[in-house]
Specification:
The structure holds 2 protein chains of 2 kinds.
Chain A (H helix, E strand, L loop, with lengths): L1 H24 L6 H21 L11 H8 L1 H33 L6 H13 L5 H11 L4 H9 L14 H25 L3 H9 L4 H29 L3 H6 L7 H9 L8 H34 L1
Chain B lengths: L3 E12 L2 E12 L3 E5 L6 H9 L6 E6 L2 E2 L10 E4 L11 H10 L7 H14 L15 H14 L4 E5 L7 H18 L2 E6 L2 H7 L2 E6 L2 E6 L1 H6 L4 H6 L4 E8 L2 E4 L2 E5 L6 E8 L4 E5 L5 E8 L3 E7 L5 E7 L11 E6 L3 E6 L1
Parallel strand pairs in B: 3-8, 3-9, 6-7, 7-8, 13-20
Antiparallel strand pairs in B: 1-2, 1-4, 4-5, 9-10, 11-12, 11-14, 12-13, 14-20, 15-19, 16-17, 16-19, 17-18
Helix pairs in contact in B: 2-3, 2-4, 3-4
Classes of the chains: A mainly alpha, B alpha+beta.
Chain lengths: 305, 347
């Protein structure tokens, strides 16, 4: 009898531990869709690019593609263009977006202006690609309405000759169209987190407006500003569709060059070159994201206080 | 405590249709700690913010040390302020926070003096070992201590405390309340303390002002405010009261078979409701008593009993804890009053 009881207890305990283990595991099922998505569309392509950059056409390990690409002055110049374009648009987008965020944040928190602006920027930040490029071509292109209008009274002015639109300057101009709204979206929470009583504490301690911004406001916002700028940099660095729609001839930035290497109309397609170029881009994005994570960590500590 | 340090003369402020301050007049003496007490929305925080220069006024005048500062900007007033919400600068250590005011143009001192002063103040608030800690590394109580040290660093003309303890848990709140009082007495800074917690106000202040609807109802030393309220609102807001019906004749009221003097401001004739403190009611076990104990709770130092009187009125009485074993539920008791005077409001 006692043996039976003992078995019943042992059996029940075993079932109990199995149930507890099941309870521990089940919450992770919710993450499965995310993990699947991340594996299929982020991890697998990245690994494919990283390994492909070091393989020849027969799949053997080689440094040739990476060496050839990263010692070529042409590739390096285009890579430098891409970095400069990303840096410039990140800087312009960050400054203008931050000012815009501040202007909106100082208004009523539930005001109509803020609600409309937040909704609008949510759309505009994702408005890159063919539609955006077409919008600029129709406005500032060779037969764009502004070009036509300006030509009629100032034929020698900057806007009368729209060739700038199809180069780096044009790309920078167009990229700002989604960079500024993106900065607005990611930086607005940081501005909202500036507590009114920090300003009041500074005032009561004798601080002027300038002293508050110099010693409190700007230092508190700096990590968020830099982090947001890095996001903008990565956003511009990896942008492809807008540039591809605007610039049909030549590869002036690395994403266009990668596309050209994968599907050349002149039979010069070279997947190894594309992967070697992508390897460089992945490396830059990894560095940018690592810096972003460090800055976020700093800000999240401050948010706890 | 002699000369008047702060004078608020008939100050008023409305937010749309809401009158936050409706002609508040208040004087605070040099080195005095005055607490403004009142329910939410009574205007106490608006009054403090107006004194700090963080809130403009519709009417009235503010004088500090005899000087009219009504229209002076907040950063020229020389007030130290501790806020309800934690307000330390998150990117600065405790020491850097304390030094903040001393780095500003208004109070600038040398780096050496700054360091010396901040160390002294951190020592004063008991956080000398936390000088290098950042706000996210400190508890709420520690953050408020640093905020107090930061406010004191500029040697303010007036220290303003805007419900500084309300975000803290009960134990830390009592500890820090006593600390604030100790430090205030040590430093001697004129202080205005705003709170909705009566125990906090009575426990810390030289005088307590009770506010309602933007005006001061009564200001007095804690004992007087508690024992001799001048209005029904003050009597009921500060401490517990039992409303007991009685008959007023001149300056006395007849309740529970006793004749008790009425406080100034009470009704002077006819039926009224006397507001009697629980500790003014004596409950004694008596088999022939007409009242009955409903429940009795032992609260450590005292015993609190709920008693039904013969006419059905339910009252709360407080007696020595030794009575707890005697005053059990259902016990017949005799109820008498032990107070020199009570406030009586109209029915």
């Amino acid at each position: 009898m006692s043996q039976l009881t003992q078995e019943a207890i042992t059996g029940s305990a075993a079932r109990g531990s199995g149930y507890r283990a099941w309870r521990r595991v089940t919450p992770y099922f919710g993450v499965l869709p995310f993990l699947t998505l991340a594996t299929l569309f982020l991890l697998w392509p990245t690994i494919s690019v990283m390994t492909g950059a070091f393989q020849d056409s027969k799949g053997h390990f080689t440094f040739t593609s990476v060496h050839d690409v990263w010692t070529s002055s042409t590739h390096l110049a285009i890579f430098k263009n891409t970095l400069l374009l990303s840096g410039e648009t990140a800087l312009i987008g960050a400054i203008l977006g931050a000012l815009l965020s501040y202007a909106v944040a100082t208004g009523k928190p539930d005001g109509i202006l803020r609600r409309i602006w937040v909704s609008a920027t949510g759309v505009l930040a994702q408005f890159g690609g063919v539609m955006l490029a077409f919008g600029f071509v129709a406005t500032f292109g060779f037969n764009g309405f502004i070009t036509t209008f300006v030509k009629s009274f100032a034929p020698h002015s900057f806007f009368a000759n729209p060739s700038w639109l199809y180069g780096i300057t044009g790309l920078a101009f167009v990229y700002c169209f989604f960079q500024i709204p993106l900065m607005f979206i990611v930086f607005l929470p940081a501005i909202d987190n500036l507590r009114p009583n920090w300003r009041e504490a500074s005032d009561s301690l004798g601080g002027s407006t300038w002293e508050y911004w110099r010693r409190v406001g700007i230092p508190v916002l700096t990590p968020s500003f830099l982090g947001s700028s890095l996001l903008l940099f990565a956003n511009a660095f990896s942008a492809y569709a807008t540039a591809a729609s605007l610039i049909s001839q030549g590869s002036i930035i690395t994403p266009l060059e990668i596309s050209g290497s994968l599907s050349s109309e002149t039979g010069l397609a070279n997947a190894a070159t594309a992967k070697a170029l992508s390897f460089g881009m992945v490396a830059v994005v990894v560095v940018v994201m690592a810096l972003y994570t460090l800055l976020r960590r700093k800000v999240s500590k401050w948010e706890k206080s | 405590m002699s000369s008047v340090a702060v004078q608020l003369n008939d100050i008023a402020k409305s937010f749309g249709p809401v009158k936050a301050l409706a002609g508040l007049t208040l004087e605070i003496k040099e080195g005095e700690l005055v607490a403004l007490l009142g329910p939410s929305g009574c205007g106490k925080t608006t009054a403090l913010r107006a004194l700090a220069g963080l809130q403009d006024l519709d009417r009235g005048q503010i004088l500090v040390g005899g000087k009219d500062i009504t229209f002076q900007a907040a950063n020229h007033r020389g007030m130290g302020m501790v806020f309800q919400a934690y307000s330390l600068f998150p990117h600065m250590s405790a020491q850097e926070n304390v030094e903040y005011g001393l780095k500003l143009k208004a109070h600038k001192v040398s780096a050496e003096d700054r360091r010396k002063k901040s160390s002294e103040l951190l020592e004063l608030v008991g956080l000398s070992t936390h000088a290098g800690h950042y706000p996210h590394q400190m508890s709420g109580g520690q953050q408020q201590r640093v905020a107090l040290a930061r406010a004191l660093a500029i040697e303010p003309k007036v220290l303003l405390l805007d419900e500084p303890l309300s975000a803290l848990d009960a134990k830390v709140r009592i500890q820090l309340r006593d600390e604030i009082r100790r430090i205030q007495l040590e430093v001697g800074t004129t202080t205005l303390f705003v709170t909705h917690d009566q125990e906090e106000a009575l426990g810390i202040a030289d005088r307590v002002g009770v506010m309602r609807d933007g005006v001061l109802q009564q200001i007095a030393v804690p004992q007087e405010l508690y024992d001799r309220p001048t209005s029904a609102f003050v009597a009921e807001f500060v401490g517990l009261t039992n409303p007991i019906r009685g008959t007023v004749s001149g300056s006395t009221v007849s309740i529970l078979g006793s004749q008790i003097a009425t406080l100034p401001g009470s009704v002077t004739s006819g039926e009224g409701t006397a507001l009697v403190r629980p500790e003014s009611i004596r409950v004694e076990a008596d088999p022939s008593g007409s009242a009955k104990v409903v429940t009795s709770s032992f609260l450590g130092s005292v015993c609190r009993s709920i008693v039904d009187l013969a006419d059905g009125t339910r009252i709360t009485a407080q007696s020595a804890s030794s009575q707890a074993s005697v005053l059990r539920a259902g016990t017949s008791v005799r109820v008498t009053l032990d107070t020199p005077a009570v406030f009586v409001k109209s029915l």
